[in-house]
Design goal:
heterodimer; A: mainly alpha; Sodium/glucose cotransporter; 75% helix; B: 71 residues; mainly alpha; 3 helices; 0% strand; elongated
Chain lengths: 509, 71
């Protein structure tokens, strides 16, 4: 790794920092107002909304985890492609409805809606807490991705002090990020998201066009080498026994994405319904990049120099290094610096967006329930500070637990967030039938069964799978837990209306 | 108050997912494209088709909103 790589990386990081601060002056608003700070004044047009929501998809985690999983487990992780395709169809229907309602009633989070729709503080607090918890490992995984880049880039210079050096580099980057999001709010994230996406899209296209031309026989040869090196894994096609696992994984992931607080936050910052619609309609094109990235997990088998970085002789393979290793092994040094920075800020920007959305939830939907008389300025100030705290909590989390454990917690986070679907998505369309106590029961039992099934599938030891055995073959646990949850919501609502005829439907408009 | 424009729009949004739900349809090695197994390139191709169909749905819904003035 030449010095020029690091110089390009640092120069671009300086540009990134400048953009982050300059954003405060861009379309200036009163940044002590929460709608201004956290939703960029709800003025994002279709292009910016496209970049901002796309930024949540194209994270360091996707860059690192999806290729890593495809490298280890093969074709099942092609699910990323139908997942992104389906998730935007869900968004075009559900998020447009939520946007309209939020504009009318000045909601800033999805939980604001839940609270009013079901007239229940307890339910609102439960949903808010679920969102905050599910978001934490997501941020932590951004950091895992950023660290993978630092490891490949800094290894030649700090072979003995690699871990310490990359931790210092991470802390410095997070301080920079924390300061500029404190100052600029979501505007900082939206502007820097453009820079990040331009770099990343260029990188993905360059690598995917260039690398196969360097391999004799192109993709066909890569699939062949993958098969030879890892004969037990099916790369080219999906084993028919995994059909239901594949379907449940992509459908549930598609339903889950827009339940994450940061995704809802991105949608609510859009200027109007047209923006939500048109920016979402074009988002599957982002998926093309993700599709190509998944293939990196196969391509790496045909590039011996990269494979040596991912899987050095005599040690266990570190799949998280797939993408940085392929880039450093095949691309010119200056380009590697450019690409590495793209992945690195690909972790920072989403981390900022996620921490903002967690802070919104904690302040508006939990703290305010107990301290109702918060002044708007104080509320904004608390949100700003808690978003800083959440970022550093995630950083500390990564320094303490191992990478593999962080990834497993993310899987559990996905199962948790799915349990908020009845309150948020079904609640949008069902204006009268669903009852708050049934939803609370469904949420509680959904969460409990999700945890129980995960522990059971892993024989009550270290988490390594989120699939459970069933009469339909392997299934994503999230699907089962959500089915139980939804069933309880409807049966419970019917019972509640029978037992308590006075239980008036929540105020719907 | 289901508007007539909602039906074609809903179809445009649902069809791509329905097609990919039928995994055995495309879980095949051949025909290959640029050395990619059918399983891979078929799904990649649907990203482009979906973007096109969603855009059409957005146009239809957008016009419906203007007519019905509920935006």
């Amino acid at each position: 790794m030449a010095l020029v790589t690091i110089i390009v990386f640092l120069a671009l990081f300086a540009v990134f920092t400048f953009l982050g601060f300059a954003a405060a002056y861009w379309r200036k608003g009163d940044l002590s107002d929460l709608g201004q700070w956290a939703l960029a004044g709800r003025r994002l047009g279709p292009y910016l909304a496209w970049f901002l929501v796309g930024a949540d998809l194209y994270t360091a985690y996707t860059f690192i985890a999806v290729p890593s999983a495809a490298f280890a487990s093969g074709a099942i992780f092609a699910y990323a492609t139908p997942y992104v395709m389906a998730t935007f169809a869900v968004a075009m229907i559900v998020m447009v409805t939520l946007w309209k309602m939020s504009r009318e009633k000045h909601y800033i989070t999805g939980v604001d809606f839940v609270k009013e729709r079901f007239n229940s503080k307890t339910l609102a607090i439960a949903i808010a807490a679920t969102g905050i918890i599910a978001e934490l490992p997501y941020i932590a995984l951004q950091i895992v991705g950023m660290r993978a880049v630092l490891i490949v880039m800094l290894e030649p210079y700090f072979p003995t002090t690699l871990a310490g050096t990359s931790e210092v580099a991470l802390i410095i980057s997070f301080v920079v990020l924390a300061v500029f999001t404190f100052v600029s709010g979501l505007r900082g994230a939206a502007l820097t998201a453009i820079m990040k996406d331009v770099i990343i899209l260029t990188t993905v296209l360059a690598v995917i066009i260039y690398v196969p031309t360097q391999i004799n026989g192109g993709f066909a040869a890569a699939f062949q080498s993958a098969h030879t090196i890892a004969p037990k894994v099916s790369f080219a096609t999906l084993s028919p026994t995994l059909t239901n696992a594949y379907v449940s994984l992509f459908v549930l992931s598609a339903l889950q994405l827009y339940l994450y607080p940061h995704a809802i936050n991105g949608v609510l910052s859009s200027k109007n319904v047209r923006t939500v619609r048109f920016s979402t309609a074009l988002l599957p094109l982002y998926g093309v990049g993700l599709f190509l990235l998944t293939l990196f997990g196969v391509l790496v088998y045909a590039v011996p120099k990269a494979l040596a970085i991912v899987h050095p002789a005599g040690v266990a393979a570190n799949g998280t290094l797939v993408v940085p290793a392929l880039i450093s092994a095949t691309m010119p040094d200056w380009f590697a610096g450019f690409a590495f920075l793209g992945i690195f800020i690909g972790g920072l920007v989403p981390a900022a967006v996620m921490a903002i959305s967690q802070a919104n939830l904690l302040t508006r939907n939990i703290i305010k329930e107990f301290v109702p008389n918060l002044k708007p300025k104080t509320e904004t100030l608390i949100v700003k500070w808690t978003s800083v705290i959440f970022k550093f909590m995630a950083l500390a989390f990564v320094f303490v637990v191992s990478d593999t454990y962080a990834i497993q917690l993310q899987l559990l986070g996905g199962i948790f967030i799915a349990q908020t679907l009845p309150a948020i998505m079904l609640g949008l369309y069902d204006r009268t039938f669903l009852h708050k106590y049934a939803l609370l029961a469904g949420w509680a039992i959904g969460m409990a069964s999700g945890i129980w099934l995960t522990l059971e599938a892993n024989n009550f030891s270290i988490l390594s799978t989120s699939f459970m055995k069933s009469p339909f073959g392997l299934l994503y646990i999230s699907a089962t837990a959500l089915a139980i949850n939804v069933l309880i919501c409807y049966v419970g609502s019917a019972l509640a209306r029978l037992v308590m005829p006075s239980a008036k439907p929540a105020p719907a408009d | 108050m289901v508007k007539a424009s909602y039906i074609p729009a809903a179809l445009l949004l649902i069809i791509p997912t329905v097609v990919l739900l039928d995994v055995p349809l495309y879980d095949k090695l051949n025909p290959q494209l640029f050395g990619l197994p059918f399983f891979w390139w078929f799904q990649g191709l649907w990203l482009f088709i979906a973007a096109f169909m969603y855009l059409a749905a957005a146009l239809i819904l957008d016009r419906g909103d203007k007519d019905g003035r509920d935006a």
